[in-house]
Design goal:
Two copies of one chain form a homodimer.
Chain A (H helix, E strand, L loop, with lengths): L14 H18 L6 H8 L3 H7 L3 H19 L6 H14 L6 H8 L8 H24 L9 H21 L5 H16 L7
Helix pairs in contact in A: 1-2, 1-4, 1-6, 2-3, 5-9, 7-8
The structure holds a DNA duplex (30 and 30 nucleotides).
Organism (chains A, B): Yinghuangia aomiensis
Protein name (chains A, B): TetR/AcrR family transcriptional regulator
Keywords (chains A, B): DNA-binding, Transcription, Transcription regulation
DNA sequence: ACAGACCTACTTTACGTTCAGTAAGTTGGT
DNA sequence: ACCAACTTACTGAACGTAAAGTAGGTCTGT
């Protein structure tokens, strides 16, 4: 059919096409995992030939890193850390509704890179650690400001919070029918109740 | 026992090797994912040639199903459902220490089968649903017996519990340095506090 | 006319699977 | 006790396919 447009138009050139490749990559990775997709698939989704894709990214692995970098950059510009944990929680939940297509990228890649030799293992481990540290820091802050009770291990709680988020992400990806509002509301309530400073004596 | 079976000892040898293949499969799947391993790898680990492996299992995919079936059977004989949630929780935690090598099989496969067309998608979705139902049922039971407060949505809580377990599994697989006892203790305490019937008036 | 974008055609490698055949038991008849 | 027919377990080599990556050319806006 496309006989009069041999080269599918150059209007989507350069950075534009690059972005579309990155988007397609992210979308496909969530659904099929990194090992479950091929350059041909990504290329098709982005409207380019496999070789055309490799014109922008030197290799499949480099594309993966680029996609993750793009994702990190997006996160950094659209969400900043800090703020009350409860507040962060509802922000996270909103994300499931607002940008559902970018939920799960890290969760999927994590399970594909458990082995210490895996290409993303270290990157993901560091990120997980920093996430936990961040939440733990927020809890510690709340404790020192007297908003949270002090007999709670900030690290343990932080791991729990991250585990909940990670798990709910996984479960929702497998079955989007689960009611996120209910679950988030329930967990947030639990969190508030647990962290609240007990009213009086001992 | 069944000594009059036609080719008893020969078949026993087969079953033996079959089991070793199943074990190797499970071990490798956790580390590298299903798509990350080859028949050759599994075969080597089990001490056979790739062709020898296919003598016992018709295809790579059938091997996967067999490995999952074996896992399910193991679970069913070694752990029974029911019992207090808190109690179940410590049982689960013990498992991380006692049989660490079989932690993560489902978690890894889940992320590789998110797509509705994926071979294990339905199987995993059903299992997740039944897990949630089971926990929810246990909560409901506690509520009707007056042990748990009744203003909590059993399903939401059940999803939360499963999410926590799933998430902590993933995080531990990526970084076994996290302190499971602390995290489980903290979450269990939270759970108790949340489910406990409030002492008196409104 | 040049450079960047992109294509077709190709090479290479890896992997699942098949196949023909071998080794080692097992069984039942003599 | 022995042998022929049979069964299971397994190997080595080969095949087909799919996928990453390469070579070298073509198109298009500047």
């Amino acid at each position: 059919m496309s006989k009069q447009r041999p080269y599918a138009t150059l209007l989507a050139k350069g950075e534009d096409r690059k972005q579309r490749i990155l988007d397609a990559t992210q979308r496909l990775v969530v659904r099929h995992g990194w090992r479950g997709i091929t350059l041909a698939q990504i290329a098709r989704e982005a409207g380019v030939s496999p070789a055309g894709l490799l014109h922008h990214f030197a290799s499949k692995e480099q594309l993966l890193h680029a996609a993750l970098d793009a994702r990190d950059a997006y996160d950094e510009t659209h969400f900043q850390a800090g703020g009350d944990i409860v507040e962060q929680m509802s922000l996270l939940e909103a994300r499931f509704r607002e940008v559902p297509e970018q939920i799960g990228t890290y969760a999927v890649l994590l399970m594909e890179n458990l082995d210490a030799q895996a290409p993303l293992h270290e990157r993901l481990r560091v990120k997980q650690h920093s996430n936990v540290d961040q939440v733990a820091g927020e809890i510690r802050r709340g404790q020192s400001e007297g908003r949270y009770r002090t007999d709670i291990d900030p690290t343990a709680k932080a791991v729990e919070v991250m585990a909940f988020l990670h798990g709910v992400e996984a479960m929702w990806l497998l079955d989007p029918a689960i009611s996120l509002p209910d679950v988030f509301l329930e967990y947030t309530a639990t969190l508030i109740q647990r962290l609240a400073v007990p009213p009086a004596g001992s």
